[in-house]
Amino acid sequence: MANTPQRAGSHRHFGQVMRVTSSRLALSLFITAGFVVVEALGGFFANSLALLTDAAHNLTDVMALGLSWYAIRLTEQPSNSHNTYGYHRAGILVALLNSTTLVLISLGVFYEAYRRLISPPEVKSEILVPVALLALAVNGITAWLVRRGDQSDLNLRALFLHLMGDVASTSGAVIAGIVIYFTRANWLDPFVSVLIGGLIVYTAWGILRETVEILLESTPRDVDVEAMVGEIMGVQGVLGVHDLHVWSLTHRLRTMSAHILTQDIPISAGTRIQDEVTRLLRGRYNISHATLQLECAGCDPDGLYCDIDGVVRTRQTS
Predict the structure, then answer these.
(1) Does domain 4-215 have CATH number 1.20.1510.10?
(2) Which of 70, 139, 160, 182 lies at a CB distance of 3.0 to 4.6 Å from 166, suitable for a disulfide?
(3) What is the structure's pLDDT at 315?
């Protein structure tokens, strides 16, 4: 009961952060949606693939911002009997969709850039440069709005990288436009588009990999399981650990379950062991929710990691 006020305060702070973040995402969505039309028209009249590429990228920003905003609102919903963990993974699904979309768009950009590198069309740099400068300002503002949100959220981090990719791409379009104006080197426009596409793939790949690992319930990369087991074994009264699982619900919300072997002790002594192990996991490994099952030393452990397939095969053959 002593921890109730602290937990309530933590939930209130989380809710306040999410509401502020939601408002910033809505503003960013409005600004970006209005600018997409302007940039697409500029790219069309300037005959610039770099601007059209950035406009297409900004269109995905509109979708990404909308999905991220919806995921934030969904995450605020409480747990229920149908979703006992709540809706925390909504942001992970959005991050997966955003990063996958970025990679697919980049492949399309590479193809179109290849065609234009073979036969570079004339680019109207006098239109390209002003529109790209305006795009740079818009992308910078929206990235700043998202950056001031909660960057420990993988959904928002994917969105921020998405927007920073836009900042880099528009910067490249500005530079290309200036050089084309003085040199008429029209091949620079598709060349910059290739660089932009490469940057987008690079930034998206890391997010894509992490979201897949979370959905596969892999052990977080910064958690050394062997070291963690060694520290748990160092807690007084712990004789062994088995059936261990560590996974992430989201980028910042980690959970764990394990069986802890002890002597045949009273419940009060077992509670002390559970509390010490829980504090260790929270402080050292940022595991906010641990389910620990105590077992007496006479139990026959299956091993450090539970082999579910092995259990199923054993039951089928018995």
Answers:
(1) yes
(2) 139
(3) 40
